[in-house]
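Researcher: Please predict.
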Amino acid sequence: MRYQYQSKVRPVDFWALSMYRTYHSLVGVCNIVFAIAMILLTVRFWNQASDAVQAFLFLACLLVPVIQPLGAYLKAKAQVSVIPQGTQLVFAEDGIHVTLGDKSEQIRWDKVKGVRKEAGIVIVYTDVNHGYMLTRHVLGRERDDFYRYVEARINEYAFSSKRRS
């Protein structure tokens, strides 16, 4: 089997991944609790508050649902601006063949650290912190088949390297 894709990562992809990770963690629970508490405080004290306090309450209510996602999007735009676009990725039986311009590299399956599916994005990790993001618009309907293929290759090589040890 062989899968071939051209990596195209958009700011919205990084943003979706960031929001997914935030709201599937303890930070996300705290954000939700904070937002609800601020809305309840605002409703309770709005009529008694001065203009300055009303402005503060209003801004505090916007913090989690508007300001934080906007900040995450601006960070995502900055991340996309520094990653190379148009990387050609070929996932084959012997590993991952990566081509960018006139440079190419092969990553054997036993060097691949893992694969995860998050927020519609498949991330193939080449080390603990780095990997290749393949988004829903790149993978299309092959997403689940591709994920299973990469997972099987990683497991196959991890198992065979343990047997050799």
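Model: The longest helix spans residues 51-82.
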